[in-house]
Amino acid sequence: MHLSTTLTLGGLLFVLPATLGAATGIDAHPRRSRHVRHGQYARDVDSSSVASVIGAVNALQSGVARELADRSDKVGQALYVDGGAAAITTSTETVYVTQTVTQAFCPTQTAQDGAIQVSAASPSTLTSNGPTSNTFVASSSDPNPIDTFVSTSSTADSASSSDLASSSGPIDTFVSATSDSIQNGPISLTSTSSPVHDAGLITTSASLAAPTSIGSDQGGASTLTPTIPASTPQITETINPSTSSKTKLVFAHFMVGIVSTYQASDWAKDMNLAKSKGIDGFALNIGVDDYSQKQLDLAYSAAEQISGGFDLFISFDFNWYKISQTAEVATMLKRYVDKPNQLKVDGKPFVSSFIGDGFDWSAAASQVGQELYAVPYFQPTADNANNAGLSGLFSWAAWPGQLDNQPVNASMTDSRDQTYLGVTQPAGKTYMAPVSSWFSTHFGPEVSYSKNWVFKSETLWKDRWDEILSMGDQLDFLEIVTWNDYGESHYIGPVDTPHTDDGSSKWSKGLDHTAMLDFAVPYIKAFKAGQKEPIVEQDTLTYWHRPHLRSASCDATDICNAPPTGHDFLSDTVFVATMTKAGGTVKVISGSNAPFTQQVAAGVQMIEIPMGVGKQSFEFTTSGGGSVNGDSSIEVSADCWNGIYNFNYHSGTITTGA
Ligand SMILES: *[C@@H]1O[C@H](CO)[C@@H](O)[C@H](O)[C@H]1NC(C)=O
Asked: Per the database entry, which stretches of residues form a coiled coil (predicted)?
């Protein structure tokens, strides 16, 4: 629940960043994750006037208010009202919100058209006009587009075929075939409800050679270890780390803000895992933490030891940096641009950003003392594409609904990619495309950056990789979003690392995503080879599922007292992707549901199975002769996850090792 209070005074509009009723202490991790708040208040406002407003409404705990108060540069004009003294001060602000709108109460809706919706603690002193957009006024000197998240290109995508009948109904399976399978003819959609399921019996010597070390997890079920075994798909090619010339490269976005406690060995572990799956480097996201430099030092040093090379570049987070901070950015860059593992493209150090439209990368390059290959996440405008200080643009639009920050009941499309390509290609610039597996976030009023929604991402990982391959000849660089952002559930790196907890462990602990790395291997190989179809060299089954049914009712105990917005677009489904050279047979027992068997063709196939409560068991027999089985380490529950809604997912891989 939230209120949007808009004040009208003197013809100027203003949305008051007001407070939550339950204002408590300042969050203990003020810089946990850059995705703490994907909102940028790109224009800064007069801090004293904001502070007075904040004070008037007792809003210091509001993330919006605090962020505004943190800013000191005045860039434009908007009206602020001091409710107590009726004094009027003016300052101007443009607000970019890409992912997060901070609200007083656990938001279940996100703002659109730039309005930051907040609740007012003292609404009686204010005149409310109700929700409105256009609540922020851009100054004409502002080089940035103000309306940054109105989609001009996103339309309702064709609905995915993924929504299934309820788990109690008949098994109703859809197989989305890649053209690989199309070459092999249509897939027969056989549904088998075999009562004589021989779970656990099929194992071959190849199957258990390494991959399925059995552990014990919740409920004592025998489990597949989430640790990716050595025999899972790997890429061992070698790329010279620092001399790339627009060869096709894949990076993963790494949140330095949550690894203040990392040692060199922790860095090396992450880098080796990423490298083994074909990821060429990390985009090191930094805010303005005092430990950024220490951790960058460790990262650049650790990368030197990675066999085959590992590229690094900094991705400055302009949630935290100000666009006026050219010197600060240049100083940080200078320390690393000549390190052996600094990614260079066309001889220039590569650098990126999270937002920051209007930052002067030419000026930064001058201060660094050499040209930069800057590919920031800026808006897809011709001005940005033609900006001489930029070599390309990066997009953050990795999820359906991301543009408006509004969950939609639709699949991912490449429409935003086309918008970027539409400006970068005429300008002769590069475009770096995002790839992500999921988005679910569930921060309640216990933190200042409350946010509570899920983007429909169930088959996103496959859908997006297929899109990437179809656009492959227009793309040089990919950035997987992300390696380790647990707060928004789009991490694909390990969750059991010594990172600091921003509160997201409530829904990420124990939910492993590294199987998605295995899934990506054939796609990364194909992307780099310039091929349109995934290159499957190892028979692999990857599965993923949520930890509880959608029907779980947790309002009473949940930190938001509400499920995330968009949860009703999800289905209770177990997703299985097979990657085989010659096809095979998949058996799944999802809880108490009837056993399910499906033959799969070669290539990459998706199977969607109604999700039942209980243990999730998988068997995979390939035409090549390998067979393996294993259980998910997470059992599906009909109830809440430790009292809360958890729309994150868990994944696993089983591979025949063949
Ligand atoms: C989402 O779309 C699917 C497919 O069109 C449909 O079956 C389902 O009812 C929709 N869900 C909601 C909540 O609108």
From this structure: none
